[in-house]
Structures are given as C-alpha cells and as structure tokens.
Design a protein that fits this description.
single chain; Beta Polymerase, domain 2; extended
Length: about 230
C-alpha cells in the first residue's frame, strides 16, 4: 500500500469526519458517502487545494441483488462464462433485507496531485434518487443518463435526464439483475400500419450449457494412419 494513498485517506477522513467511510484495497481508495452529503463532499474534493479532483472520469450504477451467489457448484471451473461446468446450483450468500441493493460509483482524478479516488453512494431500492453532480463536473451529463437508462437511478437536478442507449418506448432497465434476459417487448416493422410496432417478446427463455473438457477425461493423441 502506497504512502500517498494512505495520506489521502487520512486527509479525507479528517476533513469530513463522520460523514464518510474510507476503504483501501489493491492500493485504491474508496470513499463511501451518504447520498445527502454527495454534493458538499464533491464540491470540497473538487475545489479545495488539498484534494483538487478537477476531473470526473466515470459514473456507473451497480446492482447488488445477487452479490455473492454462484450459479454452479464446481471444483475448478469458474461460475460464469463458457468455462462453467454443469452442476447443482448452490447458495453462497443472499442480500439481507436490510442491506441496500443499488450503488452509484464515481471515479475522480486529480491532475494537479496525480491521484485518484472512488466515491461510493449506496441507495435503497425504494428510493432510487440521488443529486446530479453535472453541476460540479460537466462530464457527468451522459454518464448519469446511462445509469438512469440501464438501472433506473434518478439524478435530481440533471439538465436533460432521458434514456441514452435503449430505444424509444423501451420498458424497464436492462442492467437490473431481475430484468429478464429476453426482455419484455420486441419491435418489428408492420407493413400495413407502415410503422414500427411493439409486441410482447416471443423468445422462449432457455439455458445454454457449454461442453466442458475435464482433466479426468484426457484427449487421446491422434497417431498417423488415423489410429
């Protein structure tokens, strides 16, 4: 762990006292900020000389609904992607009812001090509203629109909070972990109506199970002559 990251963490903790909680992992500093303190903390991090985080690199949403769960019970294969094996689903961890499901993450850069910091704001599923930081960092404009579109997080005070990636009339928010993989509606061009129409999705959900070559079943080498 670098001394610069430790020093930055100490300065932030001293400046904002009980308003924030700092964590250091993999030599990166994460600062958890209450939603109601986001703008005041962000303004201080941007303008005060000790911090000078003048650039916002990214804003994204996070859905922790199935955090810690695994789909497949295997020995060596990963639990995601095409390397997963066939097994019996098992429960590792479920999100407790009192824990907040969503988070908004902000990545800040100080060009002046050559430092980075990550802000983390947790949100309740029943109240997905947070202040927009577009007034502090102009780059937040489209990032917040993306998080609104994909997660349904509302950014209060945003100058133009519209969907950014999904189609007009799209229903739902695709990056929520309870959103169906096949979607809710599909669209097609209707020649008689001469326009695009939306209909309930006709795709049947199915699970693709890729073939996994295991170590106990080695592939026999091919010899000359096809033997």
């Amino acid at each position: 762990m670098s001394k610069a990251v430790e020093a930055l963490s100490a300065r932030i903790q001293a400046r904002f006292s009980d308003h924030v909680v700092t964590h250091i992992a993999f030599d990166e500093l994460t600062v958890e900020v209450p939603a109601e303190q986001l703008l005041s903390v962000g303004l201080a991090l941007r303008d005060e000389e000790a911090f000078s985080f003048e650039e916002l690199l990214d804003v994204c949403g996070v859905d922790l609904l199935t955090y810690g769960e695994a789909e497949w019970d295997t020995v060596s294969a990963s639990c995601s992607g095409f390397s997963r094996a066939v097994g019996t689903p098992h429960k590792v961890k479920t999100l407790p009812q009192d824990e907040r499901r969503f988070a908004v993450i902000y990545h800040l850069l100080s060009v002046t001090n050559n430092q980075r910091v990550r802000l983390k704001v947790m949100l309740d599923e029943a109240h997905l509203i947070i202040d927009s930081v577009a007034g502090l960092w102009a780059s937040a404009d489209w990032y917040e629109r993306e998080a609104f579109d994909l997660f349904g997080i509302m950014f209060k005070g945003h100058p133009d909070l519209r969907r950014l990636l999904t189609d007009y009339g799209f229903i739902g928010h695709p990056f929520r972990k309870d959103f169906p993989l096949q979607g809710n509606v599909e669209m097609r061009y209707d020649a008689e109506k001469r326009r695009v129409v939306y209909e309930p999705v006709s795709i049947e959900p199915r699970t693709l199970v890729p073939r996994v070559i295991r170590a106990e079943q080695p592939i026999k080498p091919v010899t000359e002559g096809g033997g």
